[in-house]
């Protein structure tokens, strides 16, 4: 049965929407994804970092990005360094906030 919108309408019995015969398993990302991170400024850039597999948590962001890349780069830039990052959860986690504060790294709001 087709509607005016061209969509195919499927009629089911009431209360069977999530019945096994009415659902199809779907994998949206086909095996996971990656996250790529790099820092760029007027005076230079950091190396590109690719997070392979898994979820980027605040702990992983701190250990795999902030400590090996951001902190040394901030030291090279000096007092003018300001971190501009995303507002995604891993970047705003308490552990990240504490790390930035403990190391005197200023974040752009």
Characterization of the model:
It comes from Trichonephila clavipes (Golden silk orbweaver). This is Transposable element Tcb2 transposase. GO terms for molecular function: nucleic acid binding. There is one protein chain. By secondary structure, this protein is an alpha+beta fold. It is 30% helix and 11% strand. It has three helices and four strands, in the order ββββααα. The strands form two sheets. It has a two-stranded antiparallel ribbon. Helix 1 packs parallel to helix 3. The longest helix is centred in the middle third of the chain and has 20 residues, at 58-77. The protein is elongated and about 65 Å long. The model has no long low-confidence stretch (mean pLDDT 76).
Share of residues in strands = 5-15%
Distance between the termini: 53 Å
CA-based shape: elongated
> How much is the average pLDDT?
76
Q: Largest beta sheet: what is the strand line-up?
A: 1-4
What's the topology here?
Elements: E1 34-37, E2 40-41, E3 44-45, E4 49-52, H1 58-77, H2 89-92, H3 94-102
Antiparallel strand pairs: 1-4, 2-3
Helix pairs in contact: 1-3
Characteristics of this structure?
two-stranded antiparallel sheet; 11% strand; single chain; alpha+beta; RNaseH_sf
Short overview:
The protein is built from 3 helices and 4 strands; from the N terminus they run ββββααα.
